[in-house]
TrEMBL record:
Species the sequence originates in: Fodinibius salsisoli
Domain Gamma-butyrobetaine hydroxylase-like N-terminal: 10-100
Pfam families in UniProt: GBBH-like_N (PF06155)
Protein name in the entry: DUF971 domain-containing protein
Record flagged with keyword Metal-binding: yes
Key words, A-Z: Iron, Metal-binding
Organism phylogeny: Bacteria, Pseudomonadati, Balneolota, Balneolia, Balneolales
Length: 113
């Protein structure tokens, strides 16, 4: 990823269950909140250090069995955000590279159904 590639805008809609990111290269990403929460990058959610930087894009396309909402988003330096979820979880640091890599759009993830 280009070092200068970063979000130019981040918005969340709890009512629609979506977090959107507009990127400096013009790309637009939409993440279902359920998939974003279930792909939390923290070591606890990943099940240990061996699973770090792994995620399941398929979770962005399921009918969510539970609803997650974003209570707050905090920028971490110039490289990440920390999301505070309605279930009390807030350990994950979503780096720009991770967010871009897990983008579930058809351009980034042509395997989607």
């Amino acid at each position: 990823m280009d070092q200068d590639l970063r979000p130019t805008g981040i918005e969340v809609s709890n009512s629609d269950g979506v977090l959107t990111i507009d990127w400096s290269d013009g790309h637009h990403s939409e993440y279902a909140l359920f998939g974003l929460r279930k792909n939390c990058p923290c070591v606890v959610c990943r099940g240990g250090h061996g699973q770090m930087n792994t995620f399941d894009r398929g979770l962005f396309f399921v009918d969510p069995p539970q609803k997650f909402e974003v209570k707050n988003i905090q920028q971490i330096g110039n490289h990440a955000i920390k999301i505070f979820w309605n279930d009390g979880h807030n350990n994950g640091m979503y780096q720009w590279q991770t967010l871009r890599d897990m983008c579930p759009c058809k351009e980034c993830y042509p395997e989607q159904e």
